[in-house]
Each structure stands twice: as structure tokens, then as C-alpha cells.
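does this look right to u?? nicotinamide-adenine-dinucleotide version
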Amino acid sequence: MILKGKVAIVTAASRGIGAGVANVLAREGADLVVAARDVKRLEETAKRLSAQYGVSVVPVQADLTRREDVKRIAEQAVRNFGKIDILAYNTGPPKPGAFLELTEEDWEYGVRLLLLSAVWITRDVLPYMIERRWGRLIYITSSTLKQPIPTLTLSNVIRISLAGLVKTLAYQLGRYNILVNGIMQGYIDTDRVREVAAARAAAEGKTVEEVIAEMGKEVPLGRLGKPEEIGELVAFLASEKANYITGSLILIDGGRTLCI
Ligand code: NAD
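got this back:
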């Protein structure tokens, strides 16, 4: 167990990638604060992880686009555990669409969802990491940072700012032994991806499994990734095994992205 005794926050953790990350961090012995909007699902996750791995898991209902909700996440971590070692930042998917299809409200919401939520929670956790001269900030973003997807305008444009955040914070926080990295994942088999696949399957007269298989064929490893495979990378970056890794943006996409 490489994270025994550590306290980690995982955001957008009620399903998909966030839930996979929470699962692996708990397996590795970390006590957790898991946050998302769906408190019922979070409570079930918390119960399951505590029972399975013997760690403490605190669910916090929070809409990441609302500043006052985000504040509660770090507050609950400190109230329950007295410290924060690891932030595994994940967020909800932005609205898809071409530039001409998006409204100004979509842009404002997108900025709160994909950028400001990261800034807010980073501001909230940092004092506790600086105080103890130890911390890990891990931002789960998207392979669109490397290779934009034509219909994902908000993701392509806004998420790239997290690369700037990772590089800047890594530079500024190294002196406090706070390591800062980003993860750029490709296709991961989650509820969200299956919902998108279902819409495509209906439009093309195929089954969801056929669409998922077609997506897998775009990947050299021949399949979509699993949420827990993102969790394994987060756990490694959060552990003492990764003591010299900071300022890195790491692709995990089964080889799909071809640019260097
Ligand atoms: P998902 O829909 O399966 O899970 C999203 C999670 O975010 C859920 O727990 C949901 O409750 C939570 N969430 C959504 N909006 C929220 C909000 N405003 N406040 C708090 N929580 C919120 O999605 P996923 O596939 O796990 O994707 C997670 C992130 O990774 C998304 O930002 C997505 O765009 C990105 N991403 C996913 C893939 C993929 O293939 N799955 C690839 C690249 C990037």
C-alpha cells in the first residue's frame, strides 16, 4: 500500500474516471474525501470503499462550478483528517459542440467547470500542503491538450490552461516539496462515453458495443482504457515513488495520440 497514512481529495468522484481513481487510492491505503453533485452515489461509494479497504472515506456534495460548494471540500478534509496530502482533481465533461453552436453562457459555465474549479480548489488545499512541506497536485485533464477533437470546442480551448497551471505551479511550489503534474487521458470506458456511444449507435443503427469496438480500433492497444488505469497513474504520481516527477503532463491513451 503505497499511500498508507495519506489523505487525498478526489473531485467528480461519483462515477467514471473519478470513481476509478478513488477506488485505487483507497486500495493503496489513502483516507479520502470524495466530492461530486450526486451525494447518494457518493455515500454508496464511500461505504463500499471503507468496507473493502478499511480506509475512511468522507463524501462531500459539491457542484464544482459553484465557489461556495468547492470551499466545503477542503474544509471537510481538514475537519475530518486534519491535513491534505493529495489533490486528484477531476471534473465533469463540458458541453460538446462547434464554436458557432455555443452561447456566451456555455463559455462562462465551461470556464467555471474546467478552469476556475481547479484554481479554487488549488487555492483551498495549498495552505495545508505548504504548512507541512509535502503535497501532490494532480490534474486529470484530457488528451485534447495534445490533440484537439474538432467538436469539443470548450474542452480544446479551456483545458489547455491547465497545462499552464501545472507548469507554473510546479515551478513556484517546488521549494515547498509540492509536486504538480497533469494527466492527459484518451478514450476511457465510462458511463459518459457509453452515453455518447449510445447516441451514435442509435443514429447509425448499430449496437453500443459495436460503437465501443470501433472506438477501440482507433487505439493501437485495441481497446478503451479503464477508469482504474487512470487511478494507477494517479496513485503512482501521488506516492513517494514519484519524488522527482513534477511539471509533467502525462499521456495515457493506449497510443492513440500520434503527435510528439
Ligand atoms: P462521467 O460523466 O462518467 O463522470 C463525470 C463525473 O463528474 C461524475 O461523477 C459527475 O457527477 C461529475 N460531475 C459532472 N459535473 C459536475 C459538476 N459540475 N460538479 C461536480 N461534479 C460533476 O465522465 P468521465 O468519462 O469519467 O470523464 C471525467 C472527465 O474526464 C471529464 O471532464 C471528461 O470530459 C474528461 N475526459 C474523459 C474521457 C473519456 O474517454 N472518458 C477522455 C478525455 C477526457
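Residues 104-132 form the longest helix (29 residues). idk if thats expected tbh
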